[in-house]
Amino acid sequence: MAKSAKEVHPVKAFGWAARDESGALSPFTFSRRETGDEDVRFKVMYCGICHTDLHRIKNDWGGSKYPLVPGHEIVGVVTDVGRKVQKFKVGDRVGVGCLVGACHKCDNCAADLENYCPKKILTYNATYLDGTTTYGGYSDHMVANEHYVVRIPDNLPLDAAAPLLCAGITLYSPLKYFELDKPGMHVGVVGLGGLGHVGVKFAKAFGTKVTVISTSPSKKKEAIELLGADSFLVSNDLEQMQ
Question: Fewest CB atoms within 10 Å of the CB: 120, 148, 173, 204?
Fold first, then answer.
């Protein structure tokens, strides 16, 4: 007889879950697996709110599985590690982003591109290797294979670190991949929303000259005075866009 989810995952957990497409979250008691040999367990201190979470809890994209515990910008402090874990110890500050598993056999995995693996396992609303549903960071603790856990530097506040695990990597990755990270280069950032402002900060940290392109003239002050952009263009102003 197949084991129940509570037998497979015997560690009690508490979180906030969507029960239907209304998008309302309510208290949810569930369970997580025991700490495996290669697992890191940590107390969740903060979890960012990604727009993906809002889409998923309302099933805007289809495929949402209820009850659904969202959250894939998760940071906290390690409370337990498996006996084969090499990179982390109890007390370390860590985070988990959008993935908690992949096949580790395909070409993408071999190239450290697990996000392109056809068998990738998302942090929530997915099916884990043991057949159970994955639950995200709107919860009191998290457990994941150490391959999908990152260390948070001591000088980076945990609450500020959380958004870097989705919004941050979404901007950091293309800037590095397309080599737009050299001092003196000129980088344009289109839009100054949740992703755009992170892109401006990364680009400036790389030493580039940054121009923000936006439909909202009201964001000029924020772009230049708060985030440090060098110039600002209003995209629907034909004269500025010449």
Answer: 173
